[in-house]
Write a structure and sequence with these properties.
Helices cover 43% and strands 22% of the residues. By secondary structure, the chain is of the alpha+beta class. It has two domains: 111 residues, 2-Layer Sandwich (Phosphorylase Kinase, domain 1); 126 residues, Transferase(Phosphotransferase), domain 1, CATH 1.10.510. The strands form three sheets. The chain has a six-stranded antiparallel β-sheet, with helices on both faces. Strands 7-9-10 form a three-stranded antiparallel β-sheet. Helix 7 crosses helix 8. The longest helix has 33 residues.
Length: 255
């Protein structure tokens, strides 16, 4: 076993290890993850969120034991870095890894459970979401802040930003699903636009985002920002659609 616990929760080590050891037979399922399972647990009167990562294939069992940090360990470390840079994410509590003779067997990331009003996805699914444009503009400023701090969130997609309303017109943003990130001294224009390509297929949302981003990023005009953001979005959507069609064909032939 390998684990690390946030010093704030050092007195709860025994409880954390017990919870992860009993993960399969206890806890309350949260969400409908297909690859990874998330459950909610009580940790000394506090609700915590535990993500159990999919058991890796044989090659990755070895890779995660000897050559690369596991997704659980990366999630913990990246959350710590984000908070140090003033970026919202649920408080990291611990990660736990279990090994056998072949390599990594199972792994868990333990974090604070945040109750929030919505994710970015609701802005896509509900065009007239209350105060939607204001939320979208604040989200764009949040993304700009990530880029200014050199944070490239590789899974910057609709379900991975939790949005919490803190006043009648003010919102806070929290990143989740953290195991894929890169940190840079600075990010150029292409990196910034590429990082936003997965967020929405709606041109009108891209127009709002490019308008807000242009207020903060003065190296390019609003038109240049919109053109590149929209082009990269279209490229991503086309690639995604091709993959979905291929998956359907493969499933048909398997039948």
């Amino acid at each position: 076993m390998n684990f690390r616990v946030n010093p704030i929760f050092i007195d709860a080590i025994s409880s954390i290890l017990t919870i992860t050891r009993n993960f399969t037979v206890s806890g309350v399922i949260f969400g409908n993850g297909q690859r990874n399972i998330i459950k909610l647990f009580d940790l000394d009167g506090r609700t915590v969120n535990i993500k159990s990562f999919k058991i890796p294939n044989l090659m990755n069992k070895v890779v995660y034991k000897y050559f690369r940090k596991s997704k659980a360990e990366r999630s913990y470390e990246y959350a710590t870095i984000l908070l140090s840079k003033g970026i919202g994410t649920p408080e990291p509590i611990a990660f736990v890894e279990n090994f056998n003779a072949l390599g990594l067997k199972d792994s868990y990331y333990v974090s604070e459970h945040l109750v929030t009003e919505l994710t970015y996805r609701e802005l896509i699914l509900i065009p007239d979401y209350p105060d939607g444009e204001n939320i979208l503009r604040q989200f764009t400023r949040f993304s700009f802040d990530l880029h200014e701090k050199g944070i490239e969130f590789l899974d910057h997609s609709p379900g991975n930003t939790l949005i919490k309303k803190v006043s009648h017109d003010k919102y806070e943003f929290f990143l989740v699903d953290l195991n894929r990130m890169q940190f840079h001294e600075s990010m150029n224009f292409e990196q910034r636009m590429h990082n936003l390509r997965r967020l929405t297929p709606h041109k009108e949302m891209i127009a709002v985002m490019s308008n807000e981003y242009a207020k903060l990023y003065t190296d390019k005009t609003e038109a240049e920002i919109f053109e590149r953001m929209w082009q990269l979005t279209c490229d991503f959507q086309e690639k995604f659609a091709r993959k979905q069609r291929l998956k359907k064909k493969l499933k048909f032939w398997k039948k």
